[in-house]
Write a structure and sequence with these properties.
With 614 residues, the chain is mainly α. The chain is built from 26 helices and 4 strands. It folds into 2 domains: 2-24 and 279-348 and 448-610, Glycosyltransferase; 29-275, Glycosyltransferase (Alpha/alpha barrel), CATH 1.50.10.20.
């Protein structure tokens, strides 16, 4: 294991960018590729002929054996991605080389929804997403653009209209009136709403007049929201939907379209595909710092100059202005260093913990940490939990309290709470937030001892939830919370139930999947090993001999599983456990390496207790 740990750390350090951070590599996405192809076709099929053809060829080469497409190259086939990819082939006369492929695709779609008539397609998509139109309308609009819902304008009759005129209202008014407008979806709301209005204007004359008058204003709002790099959220799917809609609505020369097309051209991979997002550089960098810190190897892995350089990089990623998407105050961090990122609680907590590990006493770090802590405190929901992006807008996932994110935020608060300089003004508020957050985590723990995360899942688990990820993150991070700040919550009991759940969820071969009985992955097994090892070395675990014995056995078997499946820290096949917006699956190549490095580092700290004979 010591040799494997050395291999992991060397490989992790080798993945650093020349500027010191970890950029990572997201999986290519059939969904993103299909949308980008259609966007290019709507703008100029001659100018982008090469991009269109290579994108379709990539789709043809990455269809699943059953005839459908999944969100990543190794994901299960699903209706949304398959319908989008099938529609993309409808933008051109289908060449003979694609016909056998498309026959298989049609057979898969028919097996899912019956007839491939427009009404059947529409009903299937609407049933999948229910009342949430933020993804059903874009999918159906693309199908209509590609002729899969019938000839125009009849095809757009099947696409529900969107109230894009709401985008002309101030954002503060949306919250006060509790309008169902999700900030991240505003670009699609505006662009798709304009497309639907142009293709099939409303019958009501007043509505028609309002939308005609709001057209110019909402396009101005859209242009003001577009990041400098042209990519909304740094995401090819969202940017592609915007470009496709505006171009199909007659705005091919609009500045939003031109900047969006440049973004899509720039982020296209050499093989003709697109990832679902440009990168997760900030998230991966803070995870990597955490993996080295947890194993006690940060100083030996990164010298003082490298640590200062990383501090500077993270400080440069902190949001300094109010964000146009979520109206968030300055102080937070996004998942990426690129201009399309949006500040969120998970990445803000990760950055705060990384900065504390790297250089907690630098004056500029303390000032940045104080602003980040203030940002987290203001985000905490009434139930004590911490949401992803925004506090209490409605009951959508983006403002819903989440256990693993809450634990991450509380760990950041607890780590900085006792800093001697910079936190006197709100130290008491931090303690109160930790207590309220602890109460939320206690209430959110499921009867079996597990916690459910929001942005990670497992395609093979019940309801596709990843209870292993959620439970491990809370178990690991909650250990940082001060006992006196938890109020009446008995953390040892909560964490003991989580330990029991993990012990019961371990497979007979030593690995862990997203839940009990689910085949193991490197990511999930490494998370479980790290969390159990961290619990094993805490004072709270002392005196629980029977549990310690069971945990030691689980750690030995889990470590052996990781040694075998990574070939002693040399290979790291990824699994699609990540969930993007609208529950789109992805994998990140660095996840298994980062998580395994963290796991082996934790086990190494207690190796003599686990393997006394050695």
């Amino acid at each position: 294991m010591a040799a494997a740990l050395s291999n992991c750390r060397q490989r992790l350090l080798a993945h650093r960018h020349v500027d010191g951070y970890w950029p990572g590599h997201l999986s290519s996405s059939a969904l993103a590729t299909a949308i980008a192809v259609v966007a290019f076709r709507c703008v100029d099929d001659r100018r982008f002929q090469r991009e269109i053809e290579q994108g379709l060829d990539w789709l043809a080469g990455h269809v699943n054996a059953d005839g459908g497409w999944g969100d990543s190259e190794i994901s299960q086939s699903n209706l949304s991605t398959t319908l989008l990819a099938w529609s993309a082939f409808g933008i051109m006369a289908e060449p003979a080389r694609y016909r056998p492929l498309l026959e298989r695709v049609r057979a898969w779609l028919q097996s899912q929804i019956g007839l491939l008539e427009p009404d059947f397609l529409v009903r299937a998509i609407n049933d999948r997403y229910g009342r949430d139109r933020t993804f059903s309308v874009p999918i159906l609009a693309l199908a209509a653009v590609c002729g899969r819902l019938g000839d125009e304008p009849d095809g757009f009759r099947r696409v529900k209209a969107l109230p894009f005129e709401l985008a002309a209202l101030p954002q503060g008014l949306w919250r006060r009136l509790r309008l169902p407008v999700v900030s991240y979806a505003l670009p699609a709301l505006i662009a798709l709403g304009q497309l639907r209005y142009r293709k099939r204007p409303p019958a009501n004359p007043l509505t028609r007049l309002i939308r005609r008058l709001a057209g110019g204003k909402t396009l101005e709002v859209l242009a003001a929201m577009q990041p400098e790099g042209g990519g909304f959220l740094e995401a090819a799917p969202l940017t592609g939907f915007v470009v496709m809609s505006l171009a199909a609505a007659g705005y091919r020369q609009h500045v939003v379209v031109q900047k969006g097309v440049e973004f899509l051209a720039r982020t296209r991979r050499d093989d003709g595909s697109w990832p679902i997002d440009t990168d997760l550089a900030t998230w991966l960098t803070t995870l990597s710092v955490g993996a080295l810190t947890g194993g006690g190897a940060l100083s030996e892995s990164l010298d003082g100059q490298a640590r200062d350089s990383l501090c500077d990089w993270l400080l440069g990623r902190q949001m300094r202005q109010r964000h146009p998407y979520t109206d968030a105050e300055p102080g937070g961090w996004a998942w990426t260093h690129r201009p399309g990122g949006v500040p969120d609680a998970d990445d803000t907590a990760g950055a705060l913990l990384a900065l504390h590990s790297l250089s907690p006493h630098r004056p500029d770090v303390v000032l940045a940490a104080a602003a980040g802590i203030r940002w987290l405190l203001d985000l905490q929901n009434r139930d004590g939990g911490v949401p992803t992006f925004c506090r209490g807008w409605s009951k959508l996932p983006f403002d819903r309290s989440c256990p693993d994110i809450t634990a991450h935020a509380l760990a950041a608060l607890a780590t900085w709470r006792d800093q001697q300089i910079g936190f006197d003004d709100f130290r008491r508020e931090m303690t109160r937030a930790i207590r309220r957050g602890s109460e939320f985590l206690d209430a959110a723990q499921q009867a079996d001892g597990s916690w459910r995360p929001l942005w990670f899942g497992n395609e093979h688990a019940d309801d596709q939830a990843n209870l292993t990820y959620g439970t491990c993150r809370v178990l690991l991070l909650a250990g940082r919370l001060p006992a006196e700040a938890a109020g009446q919550i008995q953390w040892p009991g909560c964490l003991r139930r989580a330990v029991d759940w993990l012990l019961n969820a371990q497979n007979d071969n030593g690995g862990w999947g997203g839940a009990a009985g689910v085949a193991g992955s490197i990511e999930e097994t490494a998370l479980a090993v790290e969390a159990l090892a961290a619990w094993f070395e805490r004072p709270a675990a002392a005196g629980q001999d029977a549990v310690q014995t069971a945990v030691a056995d689980a750690l030995r078997r889990g470590t052996n599983w990781l040694l075998e499946h990574t070939r002693q820290g040399q290979v790291f096949p990824a699994a699609p456990i990540g969930l993007y917006f609208a529950r789109l699956w992805y994998y990140e190549r660095l996840y298994p390496l980062i998580f395994t490095t963290a796991a082996f580092g934790r086990v190494d700290r207690i190796a003599q207790r686990l393997w006394p004979a050695d």
